[in-house]
Every structure is written in structure tokens, then in C-alpha cells.
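Sample intake sheet
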Amino acid sequence: KSVLYSKWLSVAPKATWADVINALNRRRENKLVQDIRRNLQKSAPRSARSYHAVTTRPSSQAEVMFETAEGEKEILDTLIGLNKSFASLMRKVRTAFDEKETSDSKLLIDITRWIEAYMNWSDKLTNASLDETFNIIHPFYDFIDCRLIVDMSEAFLQGFKFSDELNIVSVLQQYQEKADKLRFSAQVKHLNESLKKVYKKHMLDTSNMPMILMTLHNPWHG
């Protein structure tokens, strides 16, 4: 989610999540809009003040538009393309795990132990089915940061192929390279520095702004 906002701001530095959602609504990308709204609700900060800093802009600023229609379309196409590709890949990942579970009675136990070690959990997956396990870990990955799913597939799906000879692990690794190119782009780094300057005059301590200063190299554990 943070990288989606970062990529958007690299084109329109003063845009808000409302601008992102409105543009996606115009493209009728309803599922992506719902995902963004759900994630914003889950990550909403405790104080109204910090939420205001993220989702609104000072009243003295005019509405921000993209400089060109081509720039808006490029950002939209990149994000929409990644989202659609990841949805398709996750369907294959789930199918692969379902097929392996039917032939390996110990798979679920191994997956549970692996996730608990990976996430440093102790009891979140107790007695959880495979479907329940995926529901529990869902907040910890998305179509931009998919490291958890890639690592999990590398641990349990090596060599797994579908009838079309698709190696799911290789395809996931290729997808992650595309997503990482966006996550670690120069525009995102520039955004981080720019936000410090923009909000410095509004808040005395810019080091305590979790919704603004984003740790992109490891967003779930940083």
C-alpha cells in the first residue's frame, strides 16, 4: 500500500489516497479500490492528527492533477497490471498447496511450523486448516510486497509444475523482481525525503510519523 502511494506521488507529489481511489473508480477497478480502502482501515493510526496528515492536504493547497493524461495512465496500468498478475499467481499457489496437501498428511504441520518460525509467532495458527492459515497470513503480503508468499513457495513448492509445465516458484520469483523494481525505485526514495521536508513545518518531530516515513526494505518487520 505504501509503495502504491509512493509511485503515485512520484507523478503527483501532492496527491492523496482520495485522488488514487477516484482515478481507479473512473477506471472501474472496483476490487483494487476495495483492497486499498480495507488496508487503509487496518493501518489507520491511533490519533486523528496523524491520520489527517496522511489522508488530507492543507486547505491552502489547490487540487492536484496529473501533469499529463499519459502519466496517469502509465501509473494506473503498472499498478493494475501487477495486481491482476498477482491475483492469477495466488490462485495457482493455492491450487498447488491444495494438491500437495491431499498427498502429504504432514504438509499442514510443516507449513504451520515454518510460518510460526518465519513470523516469530507462537499460537496464531493452532488448529488452523490450510484455508484458515492463508486467511491469517493474508494481511502480511500484497501484490507489491509478496516476499512471504515467495519464500513459502520456495520452501514447499520447489519443482511443482502444472499441466502447462509452469514452474510456479520460478514465475513467482520473476514477478517479485518486477514488484521490487517498483518498491526500490528512485521515485520512492525521493518521496521519503520529500515528505520529511513537506511535513517538517507542520510537525515538530518528523521521526515519529509511521504513516509517512516508510521502511520499504522490510515493511512487515521494520
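Comment: The chain has a mean pLDDT of 73. The chain has two domains: 1-67+184-222, 87-181.
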